[in-house]
């Protein structure tokens, strides 16, 4: 069963139950009211009968009876009884009619009034005092009004329930569709996303992603698509470029091996061939490791160990790593932008991966500036930590900037520098894994500034 149908069904059942419960409650109260109202009418008729039988002094009895009989409502099957209060052997003398229990008469004598019901015939009795003593006036009638009243009430309740049922079902369908409309919108967008257009992202109709559960669902889908897109890009780049990059040193090794096997060669020539094969094998080993590292890093943060990282400590570690890799470098840490509040210099991530990513940027700055001074700085806001690497090197041509994060791509002005075009793609993958971004600004022959923006903690 679809969720929309479940919502409609649950909404309808709950509302039906509430309405049904309230209908029974109304019916019960109306039924009880009809009893009390009819008893009140009987009591009034009993007082009228008493006044007719024992009129007050100065009252015209004949005129009083005429008015009572002609103009006052007579109840269905009404019967009137005037019973003198008499005792025999200490017990009330009960008349043959009406056939009521002794307790009824005793209560009337004690309290002055009482009521009784036998099936649909109701009785009301009152005690009156007159010149000759005391008497009990009993009036009885059949409560035909109750049956008519309750039948009409049942009819009204059934009609109201039927109308309410139609409205409830309609409202349930409308609200279930209205509530799930953003989910259907997201589902339609997800259906249109395939391996060929993983760059697409889902959004809610309101455009306020993250404001409610539907927005959180859209954000979850987008995070999943980010991971899938990066994984697909990594795999595609690996497959498309590995054959070319691995083929070059392999061709050289095979060629040198075939040349070495042709006829007799002197030792010096053989040593030269073997040396070239060793060089190409080392190159092949370096490319293979870099490719595997790039492919295995991926975009799944769950595979990595995450911890709270101080970004100033990360910069110090990068400087130490750079000193080991490139002794005699001119990398310096610029403290002028460091935040005064230490709490701002905190991010969540994997220390080793971030160290590798930023070290790649710094070593590139050293290499492409021919070991000129390189500045390493840190700035922070309430929401971001920004690592800034600035050099005075050859710069990056404007037409090459969009492609610097593509595996094996090298800028057109880097031919005299050794490299494989893997460092920056690996760095970009790591930074994206940490939900950050890399901003590059460069001018030819003036230098490059790279800003790594990472989300702060808290």
Tell me about this structure.
Helices cover 53% and strands 17% of the residues. The chain is α+β, with helices and mostly antiparallel strands and 458 residues long. A 5-stranded mixed beta sheet has the order 8-10-11-13-12, with helices on one face. Strand 2 (87-88) and strand 3 form a beta hairpin. Helix 6 runs parallel beside helix 9 and helix 8 (351-368) packs antiparallel against helix 9. It is rod-shaped and about 155 Å long. The model has no long low-confidence stretch (mean pLDDT 80).
Termini gap: 42 Å
How much helical structure, as a percent, in the residues? 40-55%
Structural class: alpha+beta
Q: Could you tell me the strand content as a percent range?
A: 15-25%
Short summary of the structure?
By secondary structure, this protein is an alpha+beta fold. It is built from nine helices and 13 strands.
